[in-house]
Amino acid sequence: MKRIILTYITALSCTAALAQETIYPAPPQGKTIYIINATIHVGNGQVLENGALTFSNGKITAVGNNLPAPGADGTIMDLKGQHVYPGVISPLTNLGLTEVEAVRATNDYTEVGEINPSVRSLVAYNTDSKVINTLRSNGILLAQVTPEGGMIPGSSSVVQLDAWNWEDAAYRKDGAIHFYMPSLLPPPSMPGRFFTVTKDRAEEFAEQTGKVRAFLNEAKAYLQEDKHTAVNLKFEAVKGLFTKEQKLFVHCNLVKEMLVAVDFAKEFGIDVVIAGGADSWIIADVLKQNNIAVVLTQPHSLPLTPDDDVDQPYKTAAQLQQAGVLFCLSNEGFWQQRNLPFEAGTASTYGLTKEQALTAVTLNTARILGIDKNTGSLETGKDANIVISTGDLLDMRSSIVTHAFIQGRKINLDNKQKQLYERYKHKYGLK
């Protein structure tokens, strides 16, 4: 009993410590906003020098160089050469599902069991997480909240990062089902793990992937029935895979693992996305032929095997770009996502152009997540998800985000870390 009480008190203390009562969602956009004299990075590779952009009622109404003079009912923002970007989108994150990794009571990203497609990560999303604001400060305005644990832990949803609750945050609900494919490599602690795939590991891999294949076959047969004697929630949850309303994100890295994912796409006629894709550069032509997109995770990392070039993770994005494979970048985790723009900047020094790198964290991500009709680029008719920076958003040395808008709402860019910085500047007389 004492242990239970202490755990409860710890959880309450953490919740109180993480509260940010002065940071709350912005009201809907009021006046029309006219941005002028800006360098506008559209997100589709196009750059407008001394460009202009207008948005009203949360939607972009015009983008160009020679726009009509703003009316008296609007607010003019003369940026004097500052940079305007589409909001960065963070895929494959447990943001809002965990707060303090060491405190179990704040972790809600996994459920018991191997196959739980009916679990919805969206309803567990915590809009009061202090971590959310640290991402917004770096220009990340949307995120794909993704479950973990088991082989099929549930569905992910895209949220916008300025909301009172998960209902307000929902941007696209349950757009993907996730399959965490067991790795063919032995655990990291095993000697020689990089050099061989053991017989036991191969057999376990075949057995586990066989379970998922059997589940999908059963689900497909169930969904082809006109009537059911009983409703199966797990089968109902993957209905969208077979109607192409959902995508299957297969988390894997090795070539043999990715080829199994390609087989899944062919066998079941579903849209598959590779999540991870460390070795995707090796089979880029196969992925292109089968229209398989890739979410490259952990671009700042060591290569997967000793035979790879030491800088291979940095070069993979450019190799996929050259092969014509649709890809985007992700950092996984939750607080780590705040560095996503800078990792795109690194990719721009290893073969991508700056605008291609920007597309890899904006429009490409939107395409993969199925939200590109609404966001991902600064085009007329899309949501006004906009970031303004005095410098290059992809360069941590010069990026200073001064304004950000989500669906036209000007959001608060303060966060707990900034507050602590100001607090101790005051304490030591540095203000």
Automatic annotation (TrEMBL):
Keyword Signal: yes
Keyword Signal attributed: yes
Domain Amidohydrolase-related stretches: 347-404
SUPFAM superfamilies documented for this protein: Composite domain of metallo-dependent hydrolases, Metallo-dependent hydrolases
Recorded superkingdom: Bacteria
Keyword list, A-Z: Signal
Species whose genome carries this gene: Chitinophaga filiformis
Protein name: Amidohydrolase family protein
Signal peptide: 1-19
